Amino acid sequence: MAAPPTQIERGRPAAPPAVTQRVRQWGAALGMPIASVLFAFVVGAIVIIVTGGDPVLAYQSLLCGGFGASCSGTVYPALQLSETIVNTIPLILTGLSVAIAFRGGLFNIGAEGQLIAGVIATTWVGIQFGTLPGFVLLPLVLIAGTLAGALWGGIAGVLKAYTGAHEVVTTIMLNYIALYLLRYLIVAGPMELKGQHSVSASIGAGGQLPTLIPSTAKLFDLPGAVYRAHTGIFIALAAAAFFAFLLKRTSLGYEIRAVGQSQRAARYAGVSVSRTIIVSMLLAGAFAGLSGAVQIAGLRHNLTDSYGPDSTGFDGIAVALLGQNTAIGAVLAAVLFAALHVGGQFMQSNANVSSHLVEILQALILFSIAANFLYSFRLRLPGLRRARSAAPTIAEQGVVAVAPDRGPPAVPEPDKSGSV
Amino acid sequence: MSVIMGFLQALPGLLQLTLEAGVLLLLPALGGVLSERSGVTNIAMEGMMLTGAFFAVVIDLSTRNPWIATLGAIVAGGLMALIHAVVSIRFHANQIISGFAINIFAGGLTAFLVDKLFNESGGTDHVAQGARLPYITVPVLSNIPFVGPILFQQNIIVYVGLLLLVVINFMLFRTRLGLRLRAVGEHPQAADTAGINVYVLRYGAVIASGLLSGLAGAFLSIGILNVFNPGMTDGRGYIALAAMIFGKWSPVGAFVACLIFGLGEAIYANNSSIHISPQLLATLPYLLTLVVLAGLVGKSTPPAADGIPYEPGAE
Questions:
Q1: Residue A131 burial (10 A CB sphere; 0-12, 13-18, 19+)
Q2: A393: which DSSP letter?
Q3: Residue A418 lies in a domain
Q4: Is residue A108 part of a domain?
Q5: Distance between CA B179 and CA B4 in Å, rounded?
Q6: How far apart are CA B257 and CA B165, in angstroms?
Q7: Quick one: angle between helices B156-174 and B2-37, nearest 10?
Q8: CB-based contact B81:B206 (threshold 8 Å)
Q9: Nearest CA to A298 among A179, A126, A95?
């Protein structure tokens, strides 16, 4: 659901019965994401067939591997599920990061850079204050990562609000600056561990999040230590709940949504547009920074060069779009993409189809959402038309969110949002 | 003193590399200029370049002919651009999402095909020395001291790129086609009223950006290097985007930006004589672009209708 009905619509006497309307809204909200995923899988199947693979076996391996179903004897279902949880955690958070910016009418393509800023700050604090006890150090590292991410996102917000610099371009630039800064720190730089190449020291034990399965336990014939799923999942879910609460129940959330739907209308309603833009980007950066913090505290414990090819921040864009910029949607989409990533490895070994198929599927989902093929071809389910018009899809909203900003302002706008 | 002497000795080689790296960025940047001047936001140069780089190597390995390979790369880049064009122009999609999806799609597809064709070895086979795009030493001119080796001992694509710069700059600002293209990017409704076909020009400009990016991909994979590795463009398409903005959406401006960024890359590659952290140096193009975007060094304003799908009758 991209745009919740306004107060006026809710109170309108001619509105259909609440239950019917809710069903229609859910149908409209779920229809496009599901259709997009199906579209991607159909085109993906064609790619598999053309390259001489077996799509049925490939998709069976992909889904079984991802969701831990034991449809093959060679896989450990619980282990696969644990890996899917590991991958879900950062995706929920970067998805929320991109989603909150979208809700404010901004395109945060910089979750990757904000995540890296969070990763660096978390590790630095975790090493510097590594001897502190856990109940101090753990909150400290998480806050450090969150603040660093917020700062990185805030730069783009301030530039947008005061100079009109387009956030898409500034966040792309900030991504690369963060990435090279990370490389500078660990490749023969000040944070490189002595006698090692391109790794930093680990953060103090107190700053590390516990895993879900104790390492001493034994589960499904495997030692507990192989299960990497960690308690960061609760942090991610709490962040999703916070996201929903913020947008639905606070005046700040109202302001963000108002600015996202129409800057001009928001300004006439007395909302400070430039302040809201900055706050939106601070929040977006905070979610992505927390994602980096949780990755360090829960999983990696140190800096490595692996954040270069890592694409968690970029995957957040797909998560937010597929999740229609809602908290529940982001969680569900994150689970799906995490399962695809985990299942992709299994598909490669089991069906001999390259795991890079997952990236192709992800791109196809994005194309489908962006172009809104379902809408364009009028392939809508009967009865959904009215619900859809009440709740514009994000592809429509996305166009609205990005396009008018770059067009000539209809009235003089003091924050110069009309130029990049 | 010895530091300065070392620097002077390294300078011609450094500037030679600067021009090469600059033209590699210039080609996709020119593509970006054309596409955005017509009103279609394009962040997909990275993906189109990667596609070109892959198909150049694959075709070169089977035909052993770098010219056919380059042509194939150009076509492949153009086809990627066609997807972006159809999704953005026909389906009125959000052009940033579409361009971003192109980049993921190209990265996934090329890595997928590398796995398929080269048995998951992580890269393609190497192109034979004789099947690469040649370096050309211009007789007589290359003997000019200092300037000769910098300007006249370059890969053939460097000369092609400089020629394209002149042609595109002339086309954009001195011909009727260029005027129409810019009109479509600034005010499509007015252009349409004047009888200009907005869609044709936009399709053409976006596809041209793919052709140019595909050529850049071939230059990278079978000119400068001789192999394809997944993700080998390493953000160059995004640097080209930065160069386009830095150069204020003009071909010559973009070229100046490409040379500045190319110098950074040359120093990064040839760091023996200049002692700056290469990683910190690598942030320079992006920092400079942020400074320009912030309006500290003159305002950089995109075409007025950039990124807005055209709807006839809408105003």
A1: exposed
A2: -
A3: no
A4: yes
A5: 48
A6: 13
A7: 50
A8: yes
A9: A126
Domain layout of chain B by residue ranges: 21-293
Q: How many residues does chain B have?
A: 315
B173 — contact with chain A (CB < 8 Å)?
A: no
- Interface list for B 230-289 with A (CB within 8 A): 230-231, 235, 238, 241-242, 245, 277, 279-280, 282-283, 285-287, 289
What is the pTM assigned to this prediction? 0.84
> Mind listing the pLDDT tens digit for each residue in A17-73?
677 777 777 777 777 888 889 999 999 999 999 988 889 889 988 888 888 766 655
Task: Please give, rounded to a whole number of angstroms, the shortest distance from the CA of B24 to a CA of chain A.
Answer: 19
Residue B255, C-beta contacts closer than 8 angstroms, at least 6 positions apart: B22, B26, B29, B165, B247
Q: Is the pLDDT of residue A9 over 70?
A: no
CA distance B213 to B74: 7
A320-to-A49, A94, A260, A331, B72 alpha-carbon distances in Å: 30, 8, 15, 9, 36
CA B61 – CA B56 distance, rounded (Å):
8
ipTM: 0.88
Residue with tokens 């080609």: B27
Backbone angles phi, psi at A184, to 5 degrees: -60, -45
The minimal CB distance from A370 to the residues B94, B277, B300 is found for B94
Write the CA distances from B29 to A10, B210, B286, integer angstroms. Answer: 49, 11, 15
Q: Is A61 exposed, middle or buried (0-12, 13-18, 19+ CB in 10 A)?
A: buried
Q: What is the Cα A214 distance to its own chain's centre?
A: 28
- Under the banding of pLDDT at 50, 70 and 90, the label for residue B298 is low
Which helix (H) or strand (E) covers residue A219, if one does?
strand A218-219
CB A357 within 8 A of CB A287: no
Range of the structural domain that residue A235 is part of? 7-406
CB contact under 8 A, A356 and B111: yes
C-alpha distance from residue B128 to each of B115, B122, B147 (Å):
21, 19, 30
A325: left (phi over 0), alpha (psi -120 to 50) or beta: left
**Residues of A in Cβ contact (< 8 Å) with B283:** 176-177, 180-181
Q: Is B249:B37 a contact under the CB 8 Å cutoff? A: yes
Q: Which of B97, B230, B283 sits opposite A370 (nearest CB)?
A: B97
Mean pLDDT value of segment A129-150: 93
- The number of helices, as runs of H, and strands, as runs of E, in chain A is 17, 2
Distance of CA A122 to the CA centre of its chain: 19
Q: Which two tokens stand for residue B146?
A: 């200092």
Sequence-distant (6+) residues with CB within 8 A of B71 are none
Does residue A419 fall inside a structural domain? no
Contact status, residue A103 vs residue A325, Cβ threshold 8 Å = yes
Q: Model confidence over A78-87: pLDDT tens digits?
A: 888 888 999 9
Task: Give the minimum alpha-carbon distance from A222 to chain B in angstroms, rounded to a whole number.
Answer: 29
| Number of domains into which chain A is organized | 1
Residues in B touching A166 (Cβ below 8 Å): 293, 302
Q: What angle do CA B291, B261, B256 make, to 5 degrees?
A: 85
Contact between B38 and B206 under an 8 Å Cβ cutoff? The reply is yes
Pairwise CA distance, residues B26 & A204, whole Å: 47
Q: How far apart are CA A80 and CA A338, in angstroms?
A: 11
* Fold held by B21-293: ABC transporter involved in vitamin B12 uptake, BtuC (1.10.3470)
d(CA B102, CA A366): 9
